[in-house]
Description:
Layout: E1 13-17, H1 24-40, E2 44-48, H2 55-62, E3 70-75, H3 76-85, H4 90-94, E4 97-113, H5 121-130, E5 136-139, H6 145-157, E6 162-165, H7 169-177, E7 183-187, H8 188-196, E8 200-205, E9 231-239, H9 244-258, H10 261-269, E10 273-274, H11 279-298
Parallel strand pairs: 1-2, 1-3, 5-6, 5-7
Antiparallel strand pairs: 3-9, 4-7, 4-8, 4-9, 4-10
Helix pairs in contact: 1-9, 3-11, 7-8
Amino acid sequence: MAQPATGYPNRPIRLVIATPPGSTPDVGARLLAQYLTEDLKQPVIVENKPGVNGLIAVREVLKSPADGYTVLVAPSSTMAVTPHVYKKQAGQVLNDFSAVSQIYQTDMSLIVRSGEGLESVGALLDAARKSPGKLTAAYAAVGSASHVAIELFKQQAGVDIYTVPFNTSPAAALAVASGNADLLFETVASTEPVVSSGRAKRIAMTGASRFKLVPTLPTVAESGVPRFVITTWAGAFVPRGVAPDRIATLSSAIGKVLANRDMARKLHTAGLLPGDASAPSFEAFWRAEAALWEKTVAQSKALQQE
């Protein structure tokens, strides 16, 4: 049953993050928690519950009262892709949550091993076509953004690339840096440690146009795979039944944080752009994204799970 909004919040708020520490959603959520604590005058506690591409966190939050004190922070892969990858879970994600705010949005980057001659998307495509199945792509988990990205890339480019799952995005990036994989689609935040160390190289971004935080990098679309476009995001969600006034309070507070110049600067440093904090507009955006990915997953057997 929905709880009245009067006096909300008057005790700590729990942010349950659907990804592990150090992941891109975790970075965004922890920055958000710092500023929300100041704005709401209540502690905002961060708790990571990774696993099954976010479904462990989904179940954890749905066990909590619908009172606005337990908030799910999850990426687009969990909220828009996973419901169609794990079809039995679709209702749990799409029917049992309300959107609060988009926290950030970003394009993914394509990284490759340094010194392997894969200096451009064109060179990568040439290598893949010359030796089908020889190149190896890492990805974070079944149904993750990195998994969706490589499967779409293979489909649209018409190439055969062997794929290997890893437990987390940082682990997948490390696999490329250490020579256990040749390429990876992941966010700037997750790949920055291996790129800045020189062990991997970022060769393209996945947006429809050049990403404004790294404008010198071409897009995959302009580099030989013209229909390939992927952007990712993370948002805050609450179980259905939370009072509309409480959702509005949370959304307004997050919007205030995202408008803070210092917060925006820190997000930019992590390769992220502040999201749209309006609950109604984010709800509509999320539903549209889920409908789009339903069609995409249906076309890929590699993405379909029980």
